[in-house]
Amino acid sequence: MRDLEIKKYQKLNELAQPHGIVIFGERADINIPLCELRQALNIDEKMYNRSFSELSINDAVNVFDTCVSPILPDTVFIHIGESDITMFKENHSDFDVEYRALIKHIRELNKKCRIAVISIKNTDNNPDVDEINQHLKYIADSEKCEFGDLSVQKVWNPKATIQTSSFIRNMGFVHSIRAPKPLYDLIKVIFSSEVYA
Q1: Element (H, E) at 168
Q2: Is 15 in contact with 48 (CB distance < 8 Å)?
Q3: Which end of the chain is more exposed for a tag (fewer CB within 10 A), N or C?
Q4: Which regions of the chain are under pLDDT 50?
Q5: What is the pLDDT of residue 183?
Q6: In 3D, which of 106, 109, 80 has the Cα closest to residue 95?
Q7: Which sign, positive or negative, has the C-alpha torsion 84, 88, 90, 96?
Q8: pTM for this predicted structure
């Protein structure tokens, strides 16, 4: 399965324009409706989804080099860890080392790249997921990355946001703002969509 996903992204990279925002995640992230969210909310930045059905932090650097680095992202949302819960329980320090290595690797490729570490959704109130999310928060803080905490329920109301966006456009502000949006706002929009959740 991974080989097919990698080949698909390599083909898509031939069409992609550089310097956008990339979601580098797994599982449900594949289904994030990026095109619809960009259009509905008038997001100007280029956005690409390079998520996999299963992706371990152990493979993340190699997969990043193959599927993400060719499009030279300016922003990366890392949403990896769900496939690593067993590994984390066995040796959380290895997990931490691998996650930091991925962040360091991304910065070696682009020292100005904005990086956000996204927590794992914990719909079953699993204490192991709570613990891994604490580690992800610590890693994000210590590596000076933004942390997207998905444990906050209903952090985004898409209908209200779309209505506000439409109102602003209807009042004459038709051009989207070119300045980079705060990462937390984009995290809310992308990872908390009721369509995706």
Answers
A1: helix 158-170
A2: no
A3: N
A4: 154-156, 164-179, 194-197
A5: 74
A6: 80
A7: positive
A8: 0.83
